[in-house]
Amino acid sequence: MRRVPSKQRNSTIHRDRDVRALSRLALLLFCGSVLAGGFVFAAQQHFAAVQYGYKSESLRLEREKLLEEQQRLMLKIEQAYAPARLGSQARKLGLKPLLASQVGTQKVGGASQLPAAPALLNPSASFQR
User: Fold this and answer.
1) Rounded to whole angstroms, how far apart are CA atoms 113 and 54?
2) What is the pLDDT of residues 66-106, one digit of tens each?
3) Measuring CA to CA, how many Å separate 22 from each of 17, 26, 51, 102, 116?
4) Is 101 helix (H, G, I), strand (E, B) or coil?
5) What's the CA gap between 82 and 70, in Å, rounded?
6) 45-to-32, 35, 51, 55 alpha-carbon distances in Å
7) Cα–Cα distance between 59 and 66 in angstroms, integer?
8) What letters, b where the CB count within 10 A reaches 16 and e where it falls short, cover 42-72?
9) Rounded to two decimals, what is the model's pTM?
10) Alpha helices in the chain, H assignment, sequence order
11) Phi/psi of residue 91, each to 5°?
């Protein structure tokens, strides 16, 4: 077998670039990045929806708590303004019930009669400024 001596210089080989393969790789890279971006966007939307769900649930619970507190406060106000409670509080302050002799009647005479309200005489008087 005859071998080529090691001192033999070989010429360098230049390859032709395949433009179609490069364009296919660029298209594949673009499609892959669009697909990955779509997955990232969908995941972001999903996590935002879950977060809004948690927020709405906490707001619903807070609303129910506030409505219960409002009902409790309204009941407390009604109990505070109950006639029996007002009467006992008035007696504690030293007030006495009204007697029949303290109630006066108004005579129908001209001097003791109250003047007529201007709104009854002129209905649009209350709307004038």
Assistant:
1) 68
2) 999 999 999 999 988 888 888 888 888 888 888 888 787 76
3) 9, 6, 43, 110, 100
4) helix
5) 18
6) 20, 15, 10, 15
7) 10
8) eeeeeeeeeeeeeeeeeeeeeeeeeeeeeee
9) 0.46
10) 19-80, 83-93, 118-121
11) -65, -35
